[in-house]
Design brief:
116 residues, elongated, 16% strand, alpha+beta, 62% helix
């Protein structure tokens, strides 16, 4: 059985036999999700399919996470703006203002390029 240990930038692959010690097979970089050759040669066909299924799950999960974040964004903005008015320190207010201005700059630049 393969185990997938999630680190910040990598996914560690570990083979966990029914009995006996775990075998660390190596790490896969999360930014490209490609099996390095040194790991690939250690896997049988079923394990390769299992790894590919996990890669698909991770890719789908990230897409869903982004969609959920976008769906929650208007609520987040409303709550942060209420905090800005009713309790944020001057440093927090500048932090919030900077993020809003940068966001508007990015959106406007994107829209200008899309219309060009």
């Amino acid at each position: 059985m393969l185990l997938f240990i999630d680190d910040t930038r990598t996914l560690k692959l570990v083979r966990q036999p029914d009995n006996g010690p775990r075998e660390v097979l190596g790490k896969v970089k999360k930014h490209d999700l490609q099996l390095p050759e040194e790991i690939l040669v250690q896997l049988d066909t079923g394990e390769i399919e299992e790894v590919e299924a996990v890669f698909d799950l991770m890719t789908e999960g990230e897409a869903h996470r982004m969609r959920a974040a976008a769906a929650a964004f208007p609520t987040t903005v409303r709550e942060v703006l209420a905090y800005y008015k009713d309790g944020a320190s001057p440093v927090e207010q500048r932090w919030i203002l900077g993020a809003l201005l940068e966001g508007l700059r990015v959106v406007r630049r994107h829209d200008r390029q899309a219309l060009a």
